[in-house]
Automatic annotation (TrEMBL):
It comes from Brachybacterium hainanense. Keywords: Hydrolase. GO terms for molecular function: protein tyrosine phosphatase activity. The keyword Hydrolase applies. This is Tyrosine-protein phosphatase. Pfam families: Y_phosphatase3. Its EC number is 3.1.3.48. PROSITE patterns: TYR_PHOSPHATASE_1, TYR_PHOSPHATASE_2. Residues 116-153 form the Tyrosine specific protein phosphatases domain. Belongs to the protein-tyrosine phosphatase family.
């Protein structure tokens, strides 16, 4: 299991290097993904500065952000884009969740209601210049972050098997200490400790994202068209492909 890219996180990585359908690979140093940044160390903050993080996109809810505020480089532009349907908040003052939805349903709701947020992430990445990166995160860095990153990778022509590989990696990154701590927190807040809860909170079943992307193909003709249907312009899509898909 590779070490997390940013000290103080479990699931931070650069999505660069994934193979493109047209040949070549996704550019490195442009799009980063992570779990919550609340426990980032001083070394982690320095690492983000070295990685050129100029924009941090936080997909968590207001409750999550209040309970566990991020640490990030001074001067970074922080963009709060709550994607509610992917949230399973844990923290002070958060009501317990006793009904645990299936992952397919959660991802379908994210795609139905999160399109403008996902398009805005694509827009921010398209506007970066050499040496700048965008860091996208939620709590685990696997669901809300996973869907948003998958859409961007698909939109620039990344091979689907590589998109699914990147998504699956989060499960091994989060296994162990992080996963057990999250399950304990959910159970303490009133959620039943069931296999369904453990899958939703800690796992990244390949077929779940594959189903979600197939739905995007069916309803919009692909991720690029999906993002454009939610506000991404032709010029921004072209810039995204030039910046990320090189």
């Amino acid at each position: 299991m590779p070490a997390s890219l940013i000290p103080g996180t479990y699931n931070a990585r650069d999505v660069g290097g994934a193979p493109l359908e047209s040949g070549g690979a996704v550019a490195t140093g442009v799009l980063l993904r992570a779990d919550a940044l609340a426990a980032v160390t001083d070394e982690g903050v320095r690492r983000m500065q070295e990685l050129g993080v100029r924009t941090v996109v936080d997909l968590r809810t207001t409750q999550e952000r209040t309970a566990f505020p991020d640490r990030h480089p001074a001067g970074a532009d922080v963009l709060a884009l709550s994607v509610l349907e992917g949230a399973l908040p844990v923290g002070p003052g958060v009501a317990p969740r006793t009904e645990i939805p299936g992952m397919d349903a959660v991802y379908a709701l994210m795609l139905e209601h999160g399109g403008s947020a996902f398009a805005e992430i694509a827009r921010r990445v398209s506007r970066t210049v050499e040496g700048e990166s965008v860091l996208v995160h939620c709590t685990a860095g696997k669901d809300r972050t996973g869907v948003s990153v998958a859409l961007l990778l698909e939109a620039v022509g990344t091979r689907r098997d590589a998109v699914l590989d990147d998504y699956e990696l989060s499960q091994s990154q989060l296994a162990g200490e992080w996963a057990e701590r999250m399950i304990r927190g959910m159970v303490a807040d009133g959620a039943p400790d069931t296999p369904q809860l453990r899958i939703l909170v800690t796992e990244t079943p390949r077929e779940v994202l594959a189903t979600a992307l197939a739905a995007v193909d069916e309803t919009h003709g692909g991720a690029a068209a999906y993002l454009q249907a939610h506000g991404l312009t032709d010029e921004e899509l072209a810039a995204l492909r030039e910046r990320l898909g090189s």
